[in-house]
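Students often ask what a holo structure prediction actually looks like on paper. The answer is less mysterious than it sounds. You provide the chain, you provide the ligand, and the output is a string of discrete structure tokens encoding the 3D arrangement of the protein together with iron/sulfur cluster.
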Amino acid sequence: MNNNPNFFSNKITHWFNANARNLPWRNTINPYRIWISEVILQQTRVAQGLDYYNRFIQRFPDVISLAEADENEVLKYWQGLGYYSRARNLHAAAQQIKTQHNGIFPTDYEQVLALRGVGEYTAAAICSFAYNLPYAVLDGNVYRVLSRVFGIETPINAPKAKKEFSDLAQMLLDTENPSEHNQAIMEFGALQCVPVSPNCSVCPFVEQCVAFSDGMVQKLPVKLKKNSVKERFFNYFFVQQGDYTYLKKREAKDIWKNLYEFPLIETTEKIDIGDLIGKDVFKTMFGDTKLQIDGQPFVVKHVLTHRVIHAAFYMVKTTENVDLTAHFLKIPTSDLHSYPVSRLIELFLEKYFS
Ligand code: SF4
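The corresponding structure tokens follow.
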């Protein structure tokens, strides 16, 4: 391995200048826009994130417009991206900037890090890209590149990994030009040193890369196995009462907090409509209401990172004199599209209305 720490930065920025994609958040040093792009891209591919970014920035062009928006509208603009706590945190942090920093995005790393939902990676990205401050970024791409080039076998999700990798990333950082260096290493991981089958023959590190010389490319980075995926069973009731239907806002500390959904009964296993109707929770929700339920639900299996949701959507008809507003929000069915909903509900609605 080359002992000159500059060899890494020189090579990677050289590669970046020849290969970088032209993305809108690369052409700005506006910290607000960089922040939005980083949060969108945390769990989202660039191709999908680009559309969301453009729409989000068009509607909320600055901190104040985001801070003053209604949370429902922010969630609506986020709909389909998943991990909705990101949108709620963006909204809360914009309000934090408005009240604590007079609406001006903080320029100090510690103050950026103190914003709601901003972790070390995002703070380093904002501070280096917007202000050229010397903080090395460490995300999944950077872990992969460093573990391969330097042959590091520490599992990247082991407790000690963060310090080991961030010390190395910081040591390699070109402190004269941290913005370009950080963008380069992330782009290199995204385009060249990709997770599966990177084309090492055209890589500028092919002569130094330990993973390549030791035949470890497919084995690095090492990752410890996570806990098994949890299964959940959601039984939804799409009530049709003339031109109206019913929704409820998810308010518990759980997935999809503050998004809307149809009346729901969650069960610990798959259950048929006869057993559902017999449950106390069903009686609490619907009382003695006369309902006409189609016993054949519309079934959707929705896979998230740590859970699989088995959803059954039951079509329910009821007469106009029935009032379910004690538990639910009554809305015109034609207004469904204006409520922020999970990707699962969106999938159902797409199928249903098509
Ligand atoms: S040689 Fe292959 S594994 Fe090593 S850094 Fe380049 S692309 Fe990644």
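The CA atoms of residues 260 and 341 lie 5 Å apart.
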